[in-house]
Every structure is written in C-alpha cells, then in structure tokens.
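so im writing up the methods section and need the Rab GDP dissociation inhibitor alpha record in one place, dumping it here so i stop losing it
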Amino acid sequence: MDENYDVIVLGTGLTECVLSGLLSVDGKKVLHIDRQDFYGGELASLNLGQLYNKFRPSGQKPELRGRDRDWCVDLIPKFLMANGELTNILVHTNVTRYIEFKQIGGSYVYRNGRIAKVPSNQAEAISSSLMGIFEKRRMKQFLDYLTKWDDDDASTHGALDLDKNTMNEVYNYFRLENGTRDFIGHAMALWSNDDYLNEVARPTYERIILYGQSVAKYGKSPYIYPLYGLGELPQGFARLSAIYGGTYMLDTPIDEVIYDDDNKKFAGVKTKEGTAKAPIVIADPTYFPEKVKKTGQKVIRAMCILEHPVPNTHDLDSVQIVIPQNQVGRKNDIYIAVLSDVHCVVPKGYYLAIVSTIIETETPHVELEPAFKLLGPRLDTLMGIAEIYEPQDDGTASGIYISKSYDATSHFESATDDIKDLYFRVTGKPLVLEKLTEGLNGLDE
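--- predicted struct ---
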C-alpha cells in the first residue's frame, strides 16, 4: 500500500464519511481507514447480538422474536430535519439514491406531567392543549412576525432587532407565557437548555424557521429517518467516495502515525498493509487522544425495548418527545426517539425508544426516570455513557483535523455545523450546497 494521498481519513463516523465523500467529489485522492470492521463509528447501528455484546457481554438477554439482523439499533439516536443541512448535503451529493427514508409520525413536548403533540398545522394549533385561546392568538402573532421578517425590509422589523434584542425580550414583546416559551424554545427551536434566552434572537429565529420549513416539507413532523438505521448514512457517503476513487480499509488498526522531521506536522500512517503518506488527516477523537479535550459534559443514552407504542401518542409508529429541562427541575432537556418496524430497525410488534440527556448528577440512570415513566412497561433497557470531546486546536499547524463528539441533541444540525467547519478548514473554501429541490426515496413530495 506504500502510496501517497491528498487526504487520509481515520474513523467511519458520519462526519468522517461525509468529508471523505465531499473531498473525493472535489477530486482529492482519499484513503479512508477504520480499526473496526463495520461502518459508522459512534453512529453505528448494531444488530441484536452486537448490541448485547457491547452493553451486556456476560449478562442475560430477554427472549425476543426475530433474527439478530432484524434489529438495527442506533448507538446514538438522531433524526434528520427534513429541510436541514444534512438533508441538503445528501441531496447535493446524490447520496439519497442509496438510502430510503421514512417520516417520523409526530413531535411531542412534555408539559405539567403529560405530553402534548407539537402542532404541525393550523388545525392542530387551534385544538392544541398546550395553550389557551388568548395565548394561541399571541403565539400566532409571534410566528407571523418571524415568518414575515425580511432583513432587507425594515418595515417588517417593527420595534425589534433580531441581532440586538435577546430572545427573552422578543418573548416579552409578544407577552408569551412561560409554558409557551418552553414549548417554542425546546420543541421548535430545539435548544437543549435555557441559555439561549439571554442571547440575541437571530439563532432562535433561524431554528424556528427551519422547524417550520421542515414540517411544511412532508407534514406530520419535521423529522425524517433512514430505513435500517443511521448506520446507512456513513455507508452512503462511503459509496460516494468509492465512486470518485476513494480507497476504504476496514478492520485496519493504525500501527504508527508518521510525522515530518521536526515531529510536528502529520505525514502519514503505518498499518499492516504498509505506509500511506498524506499532508493532512481527518479523524474522530479516538485516533488522537492527546489532541482533544473533554468538554466537561457526558451523555447518557438508554435503549429501551418495548412491545407497545408510547402511551398518549395516538399509537403512532414513531415520535420524538422533548422533556424541557425546567419541567423536571433540570439544566438540560431529555430527548426520547421512538421507532418501530416500519423503519426496519426492529421486528414487527416491537418498538425502540432511545432516551438521552446530559448527565448532571452522580446517579445518571435516575435522571432518565421522567422519560421512563412516559414509556410504560419495558422489556429491557441497555444504558451507555459517553464523554464528549472536542479538538484542542483548529488543526492548521499540525495538519490533523479532528471532529467533535456527538452531543445529546435529537437532530444532526450541530454535527453538520462541524462538517462544514472542518470542510472549510481543510479546503480553505466554504461548502456551498444546492438548495433542496427534489424529494427523498420513500417520501412523496
């Protein structure tokens, strides 16, 4: 394998595979290596045997119907926003031809001990239990204002400035109640805590608009999900890279990282297949532990196997539920992603609910109790804890560009920000995407 490349990529997480695909399309000679024998890294989808080997290697597993391969359980639960940046990248690169998507049936938010559907159209908004009649009128005025906002037309701004006023000041202007602010900030703008309230309103405005556009795309909810699990996404981009000449080597540990003479700049890697040289490397945090730092946050994720739909969701085959932090006396939201056999991740009759949040105490499993209460009886629950890492520097001096760990959010927007940031640092140019104009496999326009 002794060969020269433009870029070496280590790890087959989504970020690494997307960048591998994009750089291959750009004409770069890419070598992609992973020590594991499957795609996805942290974002892999495991069959039943792999799942129990990882989380309960010597323990018992319940008697469950179906074959091992009928189960595709995501290690990290995230949905795609129908009009979000990852969906745009999928369409822009035509990776959509390899993957079929299904819509998520509904989005719910926890309020005062029960869950309510986040309205996806005007009729649902009018009948929603989340707000009284006068509050609904104020909410409509608020959303109308955001929808009509035009940066170039001062007449649409009124008394507010999205780049100067905080989100709290915007809420106050429309006299919105605290419960409504919770619902907007956590179930629509999808902030995981309340820090956004004292920051300028622009990012929240952009998130609410994205939510509305994503709901409008296919109705029901703003979320879509690939059949057979999220592990399909990295594989789709791996295929893209291969079409454009990228070389993939799974089950290949790195024996040594090579640096240039002064031992500062990346120069290549040695593996059982030989030496590969390149001026830059893109890697997940596990390949360069000395070059990453802990953010101080840990995520707990619980995979719950159910034999019933989640109560009070009208028996929907899939939902997202957001439990806003201050509803349960926390600093961070709790997210629940629920999937079923229509997504080809469990055999018929089973449901998979994955709960995640940022750990705040010494007893993290107890922190998930509000979610467990909503799910009803569970056949089994498997839990894992992950530290969140980020690179210590931007990689320019060393040629070592490291991705961030996946956070606890329920969607891919923060991960896509990392992809775009890494692409810019590696290539020196921004990632320009065509606007999403076509449908996705399995979803009718």
